[in-house]
Amino acid sequence: MGWLAAMLAALAIAGVFIWLAILAPQAKGLGDYVSAGLGRFFGMQTVVLFWVSVWVGMVPVALAAAGAIGFVVPALQAPGARLAVTIAVIWAGVLGAWGGPRLTARIEGLTLAAGLAPVLLVASVGWFFFSPEVFVASWNPHDAPLAE
Fold first, then answer.
1. Are 20 and 40 in contact (CB under 8 A)?
2. How far apart are CA 63 and CA 86, in angstroms?
3. Which of 1, 34, 63, 88 is the 20 to 30 Å CA partner of 69?
4. Residue 96: how many CA atoms within 13 Å on its side-chain side?
5. Contact, 89 vs 100, CB < 8 A?
6. How many other CB atoms sit within 10 Å of the CB of residue 56?
7. Reduced to 3 states, what is the DSSP secondary structure of residue 43?
């Protein structure tokens, strides 16, 4: 349900940007869209707040990535190594953003595929090992009747 909600929210946001692109074809970004409707002051405020949100939001993403990498490579679990990985992930994001929107979209697609691959693998292969008896026993350890 969470993936469905996230997909619907992403599609709604994409629809808004499609609509804005039609209404303001000369716009080159979020700040230009806001400037076209509300003026330069609010356009600039939008750009500043967007960049602050990117700076603040990149830190937990980098920390999560460093934690996941440290789980896979135990040598990177030490505080100094984790700090180095966190900084490297932040700079990798910065360099990817400097590559432009096309490169950014490709990186996002790659990370989405990398994140979904294990989930889809476990979900699809797991069906072959599913045992209803184990499932019921796990959720009913006291042998209570399912219907009373």
1. no
2. 6
3. 1
4. 16
5. no
6. 9
7. helix
Alpha carbons 71 and 75: distance in angstroms, whole number: 9
Task: For residues 89 and 49, give the distance between their C-alpha atoms in angstroms, rounded to a whole number.
Answer: 22
In the numeric block, the tokens 């692109």 are attached to: 21
- For residue 81, pLDDT over 90 is answered with yes
CA distance 97 to 104: 6
The token duo for 42 is 């609010």
Q: What is the pTM of this model?
A: 0.59
DSSP 8-state class, residue 38:
H
- What DSSP designation does 127 have? G
pLDDT in tens, 85-102: 999 999 998 888 888 878
CA 115 to chain centre: 9
What does each C-alpha distance from 127 to 17, 52, 61, 116, 123 come to in angstroms?
39, 44, 31, 17, 7
Amino acid at 124: S
CA dihedral for 97, 15, 19, 45, sign (positive or negative) = negative
DSSP state of 128: G
